[in-house]
Amino acid sequence: MLVSSEQIIDALWETIWMVSFSLVFSVIIGLPLGILLVITRKGHLLENASIFNTLNGIVNIFRSVPFIILLVAIVPVTRFIVGTSIGTSATIVPLVFYAGPYIARLIENSLLEVDKGVIEAAEAMGATPGQIIFRFLLPEALSSLVLAMTIATVGLVGASAMAGAVGGGGLGDLAITYGYQRFDTATMYITLGILIIMVQALQSTGNILSKKIRRS
């Protein structure tokens, strides 16, 4: 094996750092987008066809672009924001552009699962749209939202590994640089194993949290 254990650990921490920061910024973008996609749709709290169609179109555009293409397409934006298009910091930008709309769609689906009777009951009690969203809609969908965030996080892990193809850092970069380009199969299998363990741990944790919330 050409790489050391220190290199593998460093790459692991780079992946965790990229995924964590990307998830935070993606949620900051995706959560309000997802809420707006629900409340502005026909027959909902703040029905507005113009806003819904505009946001729906934007989300669809970004969701239709494969991450590896998006990664290259927004290089000028990445350079403008962080000053470079290579490395872990630079990878966060396309990850956010990729995951933000994805999370918005997941949140939209979770909120649409909430029984309309809950909203009708809240309206009957005189609750404002803001109160309905934050005191009724989001709490009722919390279990589903946890699963949605789990799916999004797993997707970010996969995308961060894909970013290694263009020098994005992390486990993906290690696997491609050493495992593929230098024919180091041991490194390839080690990084693959670590990624599988990460995904399994994330999915299991998300499933457990969702079940606990559903039972409470």
TrEMBL record:
<feature type="transmembrane region" description="Helical">
    <location>
        <begin position="145"/>
        <end position="166"/>
    </location>
</feature>
<feature type="transmembrane region" description="Helical">
    <location>
        <begin position="51"/>
        <end position="74"/>
    </location>
</feature>
<dbReference type="GO" id="GO:0048473">
    <property type="term" value="P:D-methionine transmembrane transport"/>
</dbReference>
<keyword id="KW-1003">Cell membrane</keyword>
<comment type="similarity">
    <text>Belongs to the binding-protein-dependent transport system permease family. CysTW subfamily.</text>
</comment>
<keyword id="KW-0813">Transport</keyword>
<dbReference type="GO" id="GO:0005886">
    <property type="term" value="C:plasma membrane"/>
</dbReference>
<dbReference type="InterPro" id="IPR035906">
    <property type="entry name" value="MetI-like_sf"/>
</dbReference>
<feature type="transmembrane region" description="Helical">
    <location>
        <begin position="16"/>
        <end position="39"/>
    </location>
</feature>
<dbReference type="InterPro" id="IPR000515">
    <property type="entry name" value="MetI-like"/>
</dbReference>
<protein>
    <submittedName>
        <fullName>Methionine ABC transporter permease</fullName>
    </submittedName>
</protein>
<keyword id="KW-0472">Membrane</keyword>
<keyword id="KW-1133">Transmembrane helix</keyword>
<feature type="transmembrane region" description="Helical">
    <location>
        <begin position="80"/>
        <end position="100"/>
    </location>
</feature>
<dbReference type="Pfam" id="PF00528">
    <property type="entry name" value="BPD_transp_1"/>
</dbReference>
<keyword id="KW-0812">Transmembrane</keyword>
<feature type="transmembrane region" description="Helical">
    <location>
        <begin position="186"/>
        <end position="209"/>
    </location>
</feature>
<feature type="domain" description="ABC transmembrane type-1">
    <location>
        <begin position="12"/>
        <end position="203"/>
    </location>
</feature>
<dbReference type="InterPro" id="IPR051322">
    <property type="entry name" value="AA_ABC_Transporter_Permease"/>
</dbReference>
